[in-house]
Amino acid sequence: MRNLENRGARLRLVASAALLCCAATGALASSHREAPFITTMPKVDGADFYMFRSYEPGRDNFVTLIANYLPLQDPYGGPNYFSMDADALYEIHVDNTGDGKEDLSFQFRFKNTLNDVALNVGGKQVAIPLIQAGGVAAGDSTKLNLTETYTVNVVRGDRRSGTRASVSNTNGGTTFVKPVDFIGQKTFASADAYNAYAAQYVHTVNIPGCSTPGRMFVGQRKDPFVVALGRTFDLINLNPLGGSNVNRDDLAEKNVTALEIEVPLSCLTSGDDVIGGWTTASVRQGRLIVPNPGSGNANAQKAGGAWTQVSRLGMPLVNEVVIGVKDKDKFNNSKPVDDGQFIDYVTNPTLPALIEILFPTAKAPTNFPRQDLVNTFLTGLKGVNQPKNVVASEMLRLNTAIPVTAKGSQKNLGVLAGDNAGFPNGRRPGDDVVDSALRVVMGVLCTLNNRDVFGCVPVDAPAGSAALTDGASVDDSFFDNAFPYLKAPIPGSPI
Amino acid sequence: MTQSILSRSVRPVKLLLVALLALGAASCGGGGGGGSDTTVSAVAQDPTSVAPSVFASVGSFISFLSGLTQSDNSEPLAIDTSAPPASDSDEPTDLS
What is the pLDDT of residue A107? Predict the structure, then answer.
């Protein structure tokens, strides 16, 4: 109790309120393979979404948006490795009016070009079975057998019927190269060499409608999420009151593909400092498998019809541990503006009840409906990250007026620890959303004894003061201090 | 052996039924067509391949796919080089 009182005294009201966002949106793992259908389509499986004011020195007038896809990549996954789906549409949406609808969408489309490298074998030119025919280095991609490129459109207004324009590089070109994955030591010689190679593809870009150039990068990165994934889903097979860094991070040896764009802050807001963001992936509604595909790289199927959304991710963990199994595919297909259909999962969340079943001494909060979670989950928190004219909807919300916290000074519990530049005011790579969420879902905000703000008081949350953790910690030291922030991928063979 | 012969003789009939069902569905429209004509020929020239008219519009393509029935004893339909129609501005067709 003494600790609780001390913590309560430290936390500012707005800070505590903001933390509620974490609880409302779940706990434990992020969004890797979180719904039944998306497990069949890993290339369009959104794993994590980040949105924060750029903390690279001199860039605090920009916002960095990161959408990670294709999770749980084993670095040694050759010979094809992890190209993106050329028949998919990857999007990052921004709502800058609070109405639950996108005002700005960044649309990524990929193209994979087979260079058809062949060897003369006994007088015949025969195609090789690998995506590289030799070493690759900065300035020398001539040995790549597969070249992956992408284009990006900015859509203002409705994502389908709005006005489209192409993102371009400083020369006016609209096609960008995605670096090949970190195949391994022999192909790239060293980690530094891979970094130099990948760094070529951090593009300075002109974003239509923005007066200042931004930056963009798409490529393989080490998965930034940290979680004791296996233990967590094995009925929380860990000590949730143990040390914060005693369990294995099951994603430590995994890579992911990051879609990153850094946008001038002034280009994202529209009369309100608070913006909302989320990412989606869509595929063509119809696919026909070609029974006799011709030679080539993308002839095995024919896809047609309208874009049909199959993945959605705003706040971390929502579809993973808040939405019931029967509605997970529905959630992935849904739009924020329609989130009222999922309200029961917030007002009467099952996660605290499950925790109580597994740990009977950890009593779940009893303030039903969980108005505290509803307010935060669907609207953002007044005075922190609630838009002026908010329509209830789930997305990651960032108050762009809150100053940046420099790397080295960031608190991995974000607002809970007094660092208002962090989660749930947006999300930085170093924010430990798992531990934050665990604590809030069990009612830590109720312990602050402010019914007007949180809709609950200490007696409603008997376990609200518990310092819950999954025992796998992350912080800003895990990441770079400059765009694209996320670390280089794990190599497919040892350095 | 008798069963095998019977299966082979039934297969073309089933394929034809599949094609006709699909084309029938296609002729019903199906929406989401981006304003394109969703009417296709009611007669398939080749019951072992996808009719080119299926690729005439988003509506006919989705209707064709919606009309495909699951078969455990048919060979896949051949597909020509036509590209299926795609739309960047339409919402998906409601299949409920």
Answer: 98
Which ranges of A359-418 would DSSP assign to H, the alpha helix?
371-379
Provide the residue type at A305 as one letter: G
Strand partners, A126: A119
- In terms of average pLDDT, the best of A99-103, A226-230, B28-32, B69-73 is A99-103
DSSP class per residue in A329-343: HHHHH--GGGGGGGH
Distance from CA of B1 to the nearest CA of A (A): 27
A260 and A480 in contact (C-beta within 8 Å)?
Answer: no
Domain residue limits at A401: 7-478
Closest to A46 (Cα-Cα) out of A6, A91, A76, A113: A91
Closest CA to A429 of A410, A452, A456: A410
The pLDDT value given to residue B45 = 58
A486 in a structural domain: no
What is the interface size between A and B, counted as CB pairs within 8 Å?
63
- Look at A305 and B85 and tell me if their CB atoms are within 8 Å: yes
Q: Is the Cβ–Cβ distance between A375 and A381 less than 8 Å?
A: yes
A-chain CB neighbours of B93 within 8 Å are 285, 305-306
Is ipTM over 0.85? no
Mutation site, B18, B48, B75, B91, interface A, largest A CB count within 10 A: B91
Distance between CA A84 and CA A44 in Å, rounded?
8
A490 found inside a domain: no
Residue A411, CA distances (Å) to A94, A301, A415, A478, B3 in order: 26, 47, 8, 13, 72
Confidence grade of residue A182 (pLDDT, cut at 50, 70, 90)? very high
Mode of pairing for the β-strands spanning A104-114 and A88-95:
antiparallel
**C-alpha–C-alpha distance, residues B11 and A297, integer Å:** 32
pLDDT given at position B29: 35
Please report the pLDDT score of residue B96 as a whole number: 76
Q: How many domains does chain A have?
A: 1
Q: Is B94 on the interface with A (CB under 8 A)?
A: no
Is residue A77 within 8 Å of A273, Cβ to Cβ? Answer: no
The SS3 of residue A436 is: helix
> Which of A2-6, A48-52, A254-258 has the lowest average pLDDT?
A2-6
Q: What pLDDT is stored for residue B79 in this prediction?
A: 86
As a whole number of angstroms, the distance between CA A315 and CA B45 comes to: 52
More confident residue, A314 or A443: A314
- Whether the bond into A79 is cis, omega within 30 of 0: yes
Rounded to whole angstroms, how far apart are CA atoms A196 and A269? 34
Q: What is the phi/psi pair of residue A205, to 5°?
A: -130, 150
In a domain, A493, yes or no: no
pLDDT digits (tens, 9 = 90+) for A39-67: 999 999 999 999 999 999 999 999 999 99
Which among A290, A302, A308 has CB closest to B92? A308
Assigned domain for A177 exists: yes
